[in-house]
Amino acid sequence: GNSVTQMEGPVTLSEEAFLTINCTYTATGYPSLFWYVQYPGEGLQLLLKATKADDKGSNKGFEATYRKETTSFHLEKGSVQVSDSAVYFCALRDSNYQLIWGAGTKLIIKP
Amino acid sequence: EAQVTQNPRYLITVTGKKLTVTCSQNMNHEYMSWYRQDPGLGLRQIYYSMNVEVTDKGDVPEGYKVSRKEKRNFPLILESPSPNQTSLYFCASSSWTGGGTDTQYFGPGTRLTVL
Questions:
Q1: Residue from B6, B32, B103 whose CB has the most chain A CBs within 10 Å, to mutate
Q2: Which of A45, A92, A99 to mutate: most B Cβ within 10 Å?
Q3: Cα dist. A107→A8, A73, B36, B63 in Å?
Q4: What is the CB neighbour count within 10 angstroms for residue A53?
Q5: What residues of chain B score a pLDDT lower than 70?
Q6: Helices (H), chain A
Q7: Which of A15, A62, A74, A96 to pair with A34, CA 20 to 30 A apart?
Q8: In A, which residues are within 8 Å of B44 by CB distance?
Q9: Pairing of strands B10-13, B110-114
Q10: Residues whose CB falls within 8 Å of the CB of residue B62, separated by 6 or more in sequence, listed in order
Q11: Which of residues 32-71 of A touch B (CB under 8 A)?
């Protein structure tokens, strides 16, 4: 069946460091891929998405490229801020419309 | 403002006492869903609904019921709550344009504790 695997956290970085959170998936067909972010005490909100191979989603300085050949959708940011501290979820949505979630990666940014 | 609202935000109850968590969206979305979030397990889908009067089980439906009598509302019902249903619950909605590209919008969450 479909699945999403994220790197385990927490990931702890200093401010202005480069961020990568790995996400790989297993799916039949051509799923859409998403990154959601959950700030402390809040619900999830969409960060970015990509709907087909080689698409790049971007938002708030974050980027992720849909790589079908490696079945990956890694999240990157060139210079993180303390305000980026949150839990990040990778997810795919298959043609049956179901969202399959990764376990989430907690990101801690230290000043 | 486009939003998904849930009530209550926090609830402490006792085993066996029926409860309902309401969910409402104002975006005219066809698709609605309930998730629970537990540490280390990410989000797990409880039930979902493709449209009015159309509901189906997700990954962890045991102990829960839902109904979709109106497009905007999708309440989650726990007929006889048990301590293993202590969790953080999220309602979500999205449009249905086919192909799975639509973004889900999430409510703020309901933290439920069952004693």
A1: B103
A2: A99
A3: 10, 17, 21, 33
A4: 12
A5: 98-101
A6: none
A7: A15
A8: 101
A9: parallel
A10: none
A11: 32, 34, 36, 42-46, 49, 51
State the smallest CA–CA distance between residue A36 and chain B in angstroms: 10
Place of tokens 């959601």: A36
Do residue B101 and residue A51 have CB atoms under 8 angstroms apart? yes
CB spacing of A44 vs B48 below 8 angstroms: no
Q: How many residues would you count in chain A?
A: 111
CA atoms within 13 A on the CB side of B83: 1
Q: What would the two tokens of residue A51 be?
A: 């709907």
Distance of alpha carbon A77 from alpha carbon A58, whole angstroms? 10
Question: Both tokens of residue B19?
Answer: 């409860």
Give the pLDDT confidence of B89-114 residue by residue, as tens digits: 999 999 877 656 678 899 999 999 99
Mutant choice from A8, A45, A52, A93 vs B, greatest count of B C-beta within 10 A: A93
Question: Closest Cα to residue A6, out of A20, A68, B103?
Answer: A20
Residues of chain A neighbouring B27 (CB-CB closer than 8 A): none
A103 with B40: Cβ contact below 8 A: yes
Report which of B107, B111, B59, B60 is spatially closest to residue B88, judged by C-alpha positions.
B111
Ramachandran angles phi, psi of A86, nearest 5°: -175, 180
- Percent of chain B exceeding pLDDT 90 equals 81
B35 and B87 Cβ atoms separated by less than 8 Å: no
